Every structure is written in C-alpha cells, then in structure tokens.
Amino acid sequence: MLLLTMQFLLGLLYANAGEWLMHKYILHGLGAKPTSFWAYHLHEHHAVCARCAMVDPGYRAIRLSVWNTQTKELAVLLGLVLLHLPLLLLLPAMAWSLYLSLALYYYKHRRGHLDPDWARRHLRWHYDHHLCQQAACSGNWCVTWPWCDYLLGTRINMP
Questions:
Q1: Which residues cross the membrane (predicted)?
Q2: Which of 76, 125, 122 shows the shortest CA–CA distance to 102?
Q3: Helices 69-83 and 92-114: crossing angle, nearest 10°?
C-alpha cells in the first residue's frame, strides 16, 4: 500500500512539473514563434483572454470538428496519455495519478476560462498569469496546482 501511495504522489508531482515545463518552455518558448504549432497558445489563447478578461469562448462547446485552442489542447493531452501508456505496466498508481492530473488540468483550465470569477478564487495563479502585465507573464506557469511555481520561484502574486 505504501508503494502505491508513493507512486501516486510521485505521479502528481511529475504531472505538475510537466505542466510547468510544458507551459514555460513549449507553449511560451516554442510558441513565441508564429509559425510553430505551439503558437496557438500565445497568439490565439492569450490574445483572446486579454481581449475578453480571461474568457476564451473557444472553450464553450467541445466541437472536435473545429481546430481551435481547445481541440489542440485536447490533442496534446491525448498524446500525453498515449505516450505514458507503458507506465501503466511499470508504475500503475503513478500512471493513474498522471491521468487524473491531466483530466483535472483540462477541467480546471476550461472552467477557469469560462468563469473568470471562479478562476480568481480557485486558480489565482493562472488568473494572474493571464491578466498580467508583461512581468507576470514570465511566471505562474502552473494551472492545476501552483506547487512547481512555488518550488522554482516563479509564482508571481498580482496586486
């Protein structure tokens, strides 16, 4: 039982670290180049959120026939699930906590961009990331939980 608990906790930390790394280095790093696949994050998602006070209307309905921020995000999450399938055989509790984290990420991220008041109360770090001036956009990389932002010193509190 202790081994499964440790696997589960490791999965949560792994998921949070992956979220931090992906947001900072892929979505904002590689995504800064307008021709990159990852550019949707900065050039679509952030741009829409800046105009609409955190709301991203692309999250209102799940329409898999539309290639927008939400469907691109779902494709990436599905890719992460598939990439980590072998983990189910080696460390099943870690794999399931990762899958749970991915589902929770999607739920929280989507809800936060449909209900800014909820995001301000429950995802303050992500709310601050989107409704920031340039300095704060270089931090607050976590969405689900701000653990790695605190651990790595990138949690920036907005006034």
A1: 74-107
A2: 76
A3: 170
| Band of residue 136 on the pLDDT scale cut at 50, 70, 90 | very low
The pLDDT value given to residue 92: 96
- CA dihedral over 44, 79, 28, 137, signed as positive or negative: positive
**Predicted TM-score (pTM) of this structure:** 0.92
| pLDDT per position as a tens digit, 61-94 | 888 888 888 899 999 999 999 999 999 999 999 9
Closest by CA position to 147, among listed 28, 5, 19: 19
* CB-CB contact of 8 with 93 (8 Å): yes
Cα(12)–Cα(99) distance, integer angstroms: 9
Q: Is the CB of residue 113 less than 8 Å from the CB of residue 56?
A: yes
| DSSP tag of 30 | G
